[in-house]
User: Fold this.
Amino acid sequence: MHALPHDHTGARIKRLRLERHLTQKALADLAQISYNTLTKVEQGKLPAAPHLIAATARALRVEVATVTGQPYTDALRADELDVLIQPIREALDVYDLGADPDITPRPRPLLRDDVEALHVAVRAAHIKQVAGQLPGLIIEATTAAHEDGTTEGWLTLAALYRTAYDVTSKLGYGDLATIALDRMEWAAQRASSPIFGGMYRYMRSLIYLRAGEYRTGGRIVRMGLDVLAQADPGRDRDVLTGQLNLGAAALAGRAHDRGLAEGHLAEAERIADRTGEAAQVHWLAFGPTNVAVHRVSVLAELDEYGAAAEAGATLTIPREWPATRRSHHYAEVARAQMWTGALDEAFANLLRARKAAPQQARYHQTVRETYAGLEAAKRQLPDSFLSYGSWLEA
Assistant:
């Protein structure tokens, strides 16, 4: 049975195009994409690349999530994750109400330890666990921050808002992820923290990356670098600066600006040589490995799939690297391998993505688009291939 029979991304693009009374040629011209590629994507013969998704969304005047079909509500319901979203939304909404008189926060060290434990859990891909614990911690930390009014209290709250962004973006709730980032910036301003200010702008730039607004994303990165220049020199500032350069490289790659992408990768590599592997510094996984991983992604965004597949296949990921980052990398390599026709290798990397971080992979757009591309050639793949599609949609 066809695993993704009706509602793949190409079908959604076609439906939206017809609703606007556009021909395929008209949409291709508006989006400045290949007419031949668009027709094959609509037919399900080719997967929709991120650049094409963003370009068609802009041309159709809709959000990228409308084109991709996120959040994947049926899968969320099956995993009992949908019921965890509303409490997060409610916890984010009380940020400016002051201390709750009905809540007595625990001692600050205990609260801080729980916040750190959530950072560890989300990077180990325990998304459901984190989503369940997050609202209560946000509400408790909100009261603590308002009562104390200390830098530490506001930074603890900012860190929780950052985790809310991580969870909601991984589950496909882009609107809620944006709200979480706004709250993070609000708390960071009260803490007068240029480090968190830079981190906020890095994450905000990724929202514009997904939306296909590459120029705006680049402006946000430059603002983040200016904010970080106000921070005290040291490893924290270096790591955030390097990570912002990696974000800028991804934006430039998706915009097909090779020179700018390579320039940012070179700067990030220079910084990584100084910091070494810094996976646990603000849990950004920065270091030489992350630079190499981003180079694979940039090559794929530049449509150099062969080079991306080769670089990804030879890259060794450290054992201590976060499971979520490993899963994301395997998905990127799978996408590149699919485009080169290395179907068995691509499917093997989808399996690695699932093994590393199953809850993340299940809701990852690249995983689903790559699977959709492989599905068109399923007769060349093993019997276990269809069961992967059933897992995605269960």
